[in-house]
Amino acid sequence: MFLYRSSGEKGRQKTNLDVHIEHVWTELRDNVEDIKIEDPANPTGNDLSELFNASVRQELSSNARRALELIERLGWEAVFGQVPEKSSRASVVAGYTGRSTGSFGEG
What we know:
The protein is mainly α.
């Protein structure tokens, strides 16, 4: 999925994920009427405007506003939940294999 804006800062492409998410939500909050949805492979052949109607735009804008307000007041965890603590590589591997770390590689 691409969010393409014909004008804007190219430098945003090399920033952290939080900056990108805030930028998208800010655009949805402030400029939802200016956003167009196109199929990058067929921009003139797939008209998606019916799916991106006024009701959908209003809902996206409203939810983006709420998310940005939550982040400002309470931080990212208010939107996405608490980040799990980092695990050691061995325990991550054990989670994928279903075996305890002691038996990894055996058997």
